[in-house]
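Sample entry (325 residues):
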Amino acid sequence: MEILTLHLSKYPEMQLSDSVKLLFQRVFGAGHMIKDENQSLLRLKEELEAVEADESREITEDIGGDFVRAHLAAVKDRLSAETLNKIFTLSANADTGGIEEFEKLLEPLKTSEENIAFLEKYKAMGYPAMSHSEIYREKYAPHYRIVKKKYAQFIDLFIETDECLKKKGSVSIAIDGMAASGKTTLSKIFAEVYDCNVFHADDYFLPPERKTPERLAEIGGNIDYERLKAEIIDNLHTDKPFLIRKFDCSTMTLGEKIKVEHKPITLIEGVYCLHRTFGDVYDVKRILKISKDEQLRRLEQRNPRLLERFKNEWLPMEERYFETL
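Predicted structure, serialized as tokens:
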């Protein structure tokens, strides 16, 4: 197996139990539900205290499947223990693979009678989570947490958020990018990890009565950037509640006023959220990209009826915006 071969090349002192542990983590992740998040956090903080920070080390290490190992030495003093524990807990409590998949992966390890006897005994025990061998611990000092790739792919964003939060006490984040590039998906993942306010630029479509040729000729003129600025951008750094209204595309009208309570973290996602009208107001900025072919495939899958409008109307507007930006 490719992932096993890779780890054996990096850690040549790996024992059979370490290989089994690797395959177990590939299928089952951490291998257990985290019932007490606070106890998990205390254990993580204790382990972090004992680890020396090493930013030269890779943050995540692929173990195959849906999981990675996030090395504590690489994130110490950068990613908060609370954030790492949250993504570890979410990963541990997520759906994982099954016994049949695990047993299939174990087959290549049956290279000797000794290995076969070990694995048969392990099966009789019910395939419990396994510890690293003494040799592996002594040689490689493993300190990590198993996290899902869906969270690990954004760990640089989590680090930048935590560092900014530590310095300023609050952080504003913009996730701009091409249509269907994953902005909304990222915002949902972010909201799983943090207690934050999330706003969507799609709630600020320009009302039909304002869609004049002159307005639509503007860069980013097809959103109501004036209202977005007044309702959200101008309130990014307030510590008081404020009111917003969402544009309802089904009725082409504004919805009722919604009271928003202040939170230290605010994320705005959607194309045009880095519009030049807003100025340099964000602490953290990301622009997501995607290939044209994949973009069209996703848009067609999402809503075939609107594909032509995207191709002929909205995507050309976005392209002009990104060229200018």
